[in-house]
Specification:
The complex is a heterodimer. By secondary structure, chain A is mainly α. Chain A is built from five helices and one strand. The longest helix of chain A has 22 residues. In chain B, helix 7 crosses helix 8. In chain B, 46% of the residues are buried. Classes of the chains: A mainly alpha, B alpha+beta.
């Protein structure tokens, strides 16, 4: 089967609801509200697909992605957001021993621009 | 942990001394008043990157609480960058009502209060009901200018109406050291801000040494960095050093994939085949990134493939506006965009770890329990900042 956008959209569809988020602020908030189990499940689903998925998404211009491709792109950005919590912070939803995260304002964090 | 040779930097710069340093400059309102008048209102302060105001009539408005001022930085039709106080000549209202980025469409900045319009050179272009005024001389009603200059694409201002040094003179050897890095290539900025409940120097100190990396960053950079500094340079009031990578450690899977798609991460060993760093910087193979401070409060960190900055703008003796920015090349595809996101999230997390120390330190010092601080050899940049500020105040 050709691994194209439709293929990855079908494989990763269960994760769209939670992780297809257009802005950085949304992704940060979602991560802070996630359990270790939720983040691990998403991580385990994304990791084997990531390289192939990126290769497919690389064919599209960033500022003009069709709908499903944009959703898949958002999933990769959500993976970037949660990966340190799985790989470094033992599943903690917040960064351990850190400043209050809500006080770090991402300037243009509410922008949906890629 | 690598234990640096004791006394390396003290031997290179013996005049700084090695004794304990006083706590008072971090907490004293009187000292802060001196810093306000003699340092922050006389030094060149970075306000923008040229990419933020790239087009004709683009502007950026930002507050400077210590100066009770808001500043408009604006690109003229002639391509020049100028700055003005955001104070209307009519009755003093703010001309631009919101800080941030904008464009003076229609050729001017219009004050919403009564519709006075200023050009990008600050000149007063039009006044509704001008005839109702009495011999209004529009030429003397321009916006009040602020000294402005640009170095390597960084826009600086100086609140001194007649700065004692040009920007180039002020930057001196530090300007030469950092020049030539392709800053303009890294136009994609990821920016964070917060107001910190601490003195600006408490915040800046936390980013001015590597002693903390094995403790504070045990989470985010478990194998990443050494506590050793490379090539400490004190250049007038400015200073610079290299931060080292530690040996060993295999990046976990997502980290490794992000490195694969782009070079833009401080956690990745760099490929030297296309050297971007200026000739004096990063010649030790262990060099991870340069930590350079443009006095008083602007930290520029350059490395192959990206750069990042911190700025600590005082609000008052106990409060500071921090802005941290990571600069990447505009991503060309999904792989680069993913990689940049991973890099900037990781760095943000490290900054969260760094920032966790600052308000606690300030609060604990305010108890009055301690009158002096002890600095190791690797904390020479902290010692130098205190000395450089003190030298100006006591000049």
């Amino acid at each position: 089967m050709t691994k194209n956008v439709d293929y990855y959209a079908a494989v990763l569809e269960p994760w769209f609801d939670r992780w297809d988020l257009m802005t950085q602020t949304e992704r940060e908030i979602q991560r802070r509200q996630s359990s270790a189990h939720q983040m691990q499940g998403f991580y385990d689903a994304m990791l084997p697909q990531l390289e192939g998925l990126i290769e497919v998404l690389n064919e599209f211009p960033l500022n003009d992605m069709p709908l499903h491709a944009r959703s898949l792109m958002n999933l990769t950005l959500s993976l970037a957001e949660i990966a340190p919590h799985v790989e470094f912070y033992d599943g903690a939803a917040g960064v351990p021993y850190a400043f209050e995260e809500e006080r770090f304002i991402a300037v243009r964090g509410d922008s949906a621009q890629l | 942990m690598n234990a640096p040779n004791p006394g390396n930097w003290a031997k290179k710069y013996p005049d700084l001394g090695t004794g304990p340093v006083p706590v008072a400059p971090y907490l004293s309102p009187d000292y802060f008043e001196q810093e306000r008048e003699k340092v922050f209102k006389k030094c060149w302060l970075k306000v923008a990157r040229v990419e933020e105001i790239a087009e004709s009539r683009d502007y950026k408005v930002l507050p400077f609480k210590f100066a009770d001022a808001e500043v408009i930085v604006i690109r003229g039709e002639d391509g020049e960058v100028r700055s003005f106080y955001n104070t209307c000549s009519h009755r003093g209202n703010k001309v631009v009502w919101q800080p941030g980025l904008g464009n003076a469409k229609g050729g001017g900045l219009q004050c919403r209060f009564h519709g006075w319009v200023y050009g990008t050179k600050g000149d007063l272009l039009s006044v509704p009901e001008e005839g109702a005024f009495f011999d209004l001389d529009k030429e003397s009603c321009a916006l009040t200018p602020i000294a402005t200059d640009v170095w390597e694409g960084f826009v600086f201002i100086n609140f001194d109406p007649k700065p004692k040094q040009t920007l180039k003179e002020y930057l001196g050897g530090m300007g030469e050291r950092l020049a030539g890095f392709p800053y303009e290539q890294f136009s994609e900025a990821h920016t964070y801000q917060t107001v910190l409940n601490c003195n600006w120097k408490v915040a800046q100190d936390a980013f001015s040494e590597a002693y903390h990396v094995t403790t504070i960053h045990a989470g985010t950079f478990p194998d990443g960095f050494s506590t050793e500094l490379l090539d400490v340079q004190l250049l007038g009031p400015h200073h610079s050093c290299g931060v080292c990578q530690a040996e060993g450690g295999t990046p976990p899977p997502v980290a490794a994939l992000s490195h694969q798609f782009s070079t833009a991460s401080i956690a990745k060993k760099q490929d030297d085949s296309k050297r971007m760093l200026p000739p004096l910087v990063g010649n030790d193979p262990r060099h991870a990134f340069e930590l350079a401070v443009i006095f008083p409060n602007y930290l520029v960190h350059i490395l192959e493939g990206m750069y990042f900055t911190h700025q600590f703008t005082p609000i008052d003796v106990d409060h500071t506006l921090w802005e941290g920015v990571q600069y990447f090349t505009p991503p060309q595809n999904a792989g680069e965009r993913f990689s940049h996101e991973y890099g900037q999230v990781l760095q943000r997390n490290a900054w969260l770890e760094d920032t966790a120390t600052m308000e606690d330190t300030h609060e604990a010092l305010k108890s009055g329990a301690k009158q002096q601080l002890y600095l190791q050899d690797g904390e020479i940049l902290i010692r130098h900042l205190l000395q450089a500020v003190d030298d100006i105040i006591n000049a």
